[in-house]
Amino acid sequence: MGIQLESETIRDGIGMTDISELLESAKLGDRRSLSKLISAISESDDPPRINSNAGWILGVTGPPGSGKSTLIGQMVRAWASTGEYVAVLALDPTSPLSGGSLLADRIRMEGDDLRENVFVRSIPSGKTPGAISPILWPICGALSECGWTRIIVETVGTGQSEYRIAALVDRLLLVDGPDRGDIIQAEKAGILELADVIAVNKSDLPGASSAAQHIRSSLSLASDDNREVVLVSAKERRGIQELIEIIENSKPQKTRDKMMAMERLISEWDSFLVSHPEIDNILLELCNGSITTKEAIEVLVSSIKDGVL
Amino acid sequence: MRLLEVILPLATYINMRIVIAKPGLDGHDRGAKVVSRALRDGGHDVIYTGLRKTPEEIVRIVNDEDAEVLGLSTLSGAHNSLIPKICEELIENRLGGVIVFAGGIIPERDMENLFRSGVRAVFGPGTPTSQVIDFLNEALIRKQNGNPIGVGDDSGWNWND
């Protein structure tokens, strides 16, 4: 079990007032400040809006085991060697039971731990449902502001988060493996619709090219769909350069703007909901049946109207 | 009918960011994984580095992940050279506040040297995982009370004494 203490003192007293100070020194290239800045944003109840369009954000999604982390490791290597500043935000789930998390994505991103222009940060999904926490926006903004030109956000790999990530990023890459049958699942969930580029990883294994063919034929059902399906092998480092070029030249899906606004709204709403001071009581009342879901919503919404929040 | 009271496990426990690392040429990480899992179940965010990391890589990871605690697991016998080197580099890189502990095959005669380098606990084979969590809680209390506990602090304290 953890222990109940004031978090301010534990964190060497990083408070909200320090965020702008940290941002200033991080912008000058101080890595320690950048790292602390991300922590400060993560812990802030009301993270600042850091709007910067300088960086370019790539979302990477796909089913667990499709090789997202390994592929990202190779893409980081390729981008970093051309002088890009590459930051990776690797999301992993937080245990709903203990509140802890085991963040192991970086194990698979071998070999780039010492480059100056590579930064990898693991982010627990936290208490926000759907695994996309609203802190991701200001974190991406901060990285962008500090001169990181390629920001890669890797999703947990399951569920609703895949939708959410599409709203945050400039381009969305969907990674799948050979003949897992998962692409059908992706289609069901609408993730295939959201992706700008689709990569079939593990092209060194049998079945990869037929998987790619399945996806292509599924895309061809829409006459104006000319998205690329790329075969890659992260393990054997094949097709990486081609994939990067295709991603950089790809066009974002048309419906993106409205969806981005929608997802930002939902994400903010979720975090408002789970951090509401009355949430524990409302949940208890819902459990014992003394109020209905509709009444619960009325209570939550009225607190905004009354200016409580 | 009133159902059972539901008690939500949402107490505001301090959850720490902890890096568990395997320095040097050592291919056995069962211990590191068991400890990582136990700390996760204890409510912490654990970042496991994977095998065969150099001291420089470990320090970089601790910095980029902004970890408050670093756990080093070695079974190769190279602890006397690797661990003090990691401690020195943490201090050089303004990470002297990080709490460092070690585990694995570390003979008792070598422990004093590690404590002098700033390591605050050494756990051998057979240690119940609850002990590691107890150590972290104790370390946190010391930190909160302003007692020296980081790797770069001048502290006579260690868990094993």
For this entry, give a set of tags.
heterodimer, A: 309 residues, alpha/beta, Rossmann fold, 7-stranded parallel beta sheet, 13 helices, globular, disordered N terminus, B: 161 residues, 5-stranded parallel beta sheet, 5 strands
Descriptive notes:
The complex is a heterodimer of chains A (309) and B (161). By secondary structure, chain A is an alpha/beta fold. The radius of gyration of chain A is 21 Å and the shape is globular. Chain B has one domain: 3-Layer(aba) Sandwich (Rossmann fold). Helix content of chain B is 39%, strand content 16%. In chain B, β3, α3 and β4 form a beta-alpha-beta unit. In chain B, α1 crosses α5, α2 packs across α3 and α3 packs parallel to α4.
SSE order of chain A: HHHEHEEEHEHEHHEHEHHHH
Span between termini of chain A:
32 Å
Question: In oligomeric terms, what are we looking at?
Answer: heterodimer
Terminal Cα span of chain B: 55 Å
- Determine Rg of chain B (CA atoms, Å): 16 Å
State mean pLDDT of chain B (0 to 100 scale): 87
The CATH first-level class of the largest domain in chain A comes to Alpha Beta
How would you summarize the topology of this molecule?
The complex is a heterodimer of chains A (309) and B (161).
Chain A: H1 7-10, H2 18-27, H3 31-43, E1 56-61, H4 68-81, E2 86-92, E3 101-103, E4 118-124, H5 136-145, E5 150-154, H6 161-168, E6 171-176, H7 182-189, H8 191-194, E7 197-200, H9 208-219, E8 229-231, H10 240-249, H11 256-274, H12 279-287, H13 293-305
Parallel strand pairs in A: 1-5, 1-6, 2-4, 2-5, 6-7, 7-8
Helix pairs in contact in A: 2-3, 3-5, 6-11
Chain B: E1 17-21, H1 30-41, E2 45-48, H2 55-64, E3 69-74, H3 79-92, E4 99-104, H4 108-117, E5 119-123, H5 129-144
Parallel strand pairs in B: 1-2, 1-3, 3-4, 4-5
